[in-house]
Amino acid sequence: MARENGPKRIAQVRQARRITWIGLAGNLSLAALKLMGGLLGRSHAVVADAVHSVSDSSTDVAILIGIGYWSKPPDTTHPHGHGRIETLFTVAIGGMLAAVAVGLAYNAFAGLTDPPEAPPGWIALGAALLSVFSKEGLYRWTVRVGRRIRSSVVVANAWHHRSDALSSVPVVLAVAGALLRPNWVMLDHLGAVVVSVFIFRAAAMIAWPALKELVDTGASPEMLERIADIALNVDGVERVHAIRTRRVGGRFHVDLHVLVDGAVSVRRGHDIAEEVQRCLIEDEGNLTDVVVHVEPLDDGVEPGPTGRLQSR
Fold it and tell me: Would the pLDDT of 115 be above 60?
């Protein structure tokens, strides 16, 4: 069995914590500014956007708490590691986003039946514009870190930031329209409805991959092909079959069977297996646990239950 090395994982956890702290500070600052701008500017859409930023802050806090658990090394009770805790947090973030979306939509539709109000003020428009640019920048920064360290929950949190940026675009349009045409004040409520749609879509994009992971959906056919090709390029490996994968915390655990010359020594077979492990961990880049089963080459061997037979 081969696993991702400890120092590398520690560095990744440190990066995840740092970008999440930055996101938390940004979310709290923006939420306060948008709430102030929405209240002073009499804009339901901007107030709704401020609530969205507060929900972003809650997920930042959840990640900062949870990362201490899912980053723990494997132990006797969790021999495959604690990565599924990260997956559960990812699902929870998606669920929180969906709940926020439903609540905002309900309040916005209810507001459409209220008597016309005074149009929103320019301060509300300024707060919404600030949100668009700052949250898009925070998304790009966070998603770059999340993809580099291969953390599904950090990438999910990045989309949380982008959903805030995207949701502020219709807010800008709605507030600007209500300012230019005061009798179109209902645009502000419609903007809040559009905000909720964006948020709900982001929730689905976050939760669906994590839910597939929880039911042990394997890697794509393209990834299985890459794994087979890497193994077959190792000297001494003649054929590969029965490749099985499972995603754990945004990365994959793999086990596979390699066929070698039946006349080689046990030591040589062991060395071949270790080389396959090393190459897969280094070359594929998204694997944290690799188990290689060595079998003697037999031209009559049949493929395993989870993969076809592949040879040089």
Answer: no
